[in-house]
Amino acid sequence: MRAIFLLSIATVLFACHSKNAPAPAGPETFTLDTAALAEDHPDTTGPLYPFTQFINDQLTALDSLPLAVEMHTFMNGRKTDSTIISKQAFKKAMEPILADDPNRQNLRPYYREESFEDLSLEAITFTITTKNPALPLQEATVLLNPKTKAVKTIIIKRQWQTPDSTAQQTILWKANMHCHINSLITPKAGKAYQRSIQYIWDRPLE
To answer: Residue 45: what pLDDT?
Structure first.
């Protein structure tokens, strides 16, 4: 019964948000191995928790709030810059994350979702994963308040390659407050380095 209940939450939220979803971005270049997908992902048709739509809704809501967006940049743990950026610039920075929507038709078959109530974290947890290392989005974890079903935190893990380097990235999105993006960049020629960017638009009351 709990699994059915959690699936119902995701289905209802996906239906409510689908009309406001951002347009798909990027070329649809992935081909499907139907036999392998059937074995690894028994359900490749139902909606996954719409975390990218939640982030997009947060960005839209921020437009109407009298809040500034702070951006703090760190290189290998040392702060190198702090500034105020426009909300439009913040949206632009989030575009690659929003493009990694596993509910897109060409991506959905590569992902599976598990959900459970985590008593230690006092949260309902949705975890979306893939076994395809070529996809930028490798994992997304969404934590909901078990009483209100509101999103508390989203943790996203991404990876990609360029001709010159590889990158592993973790995004921590705290609802209504901040987004931290930590990237480990490994050049093919040179030493690996860590780049962290913090976007903050609100803080909890003390």
So the answer is: 74
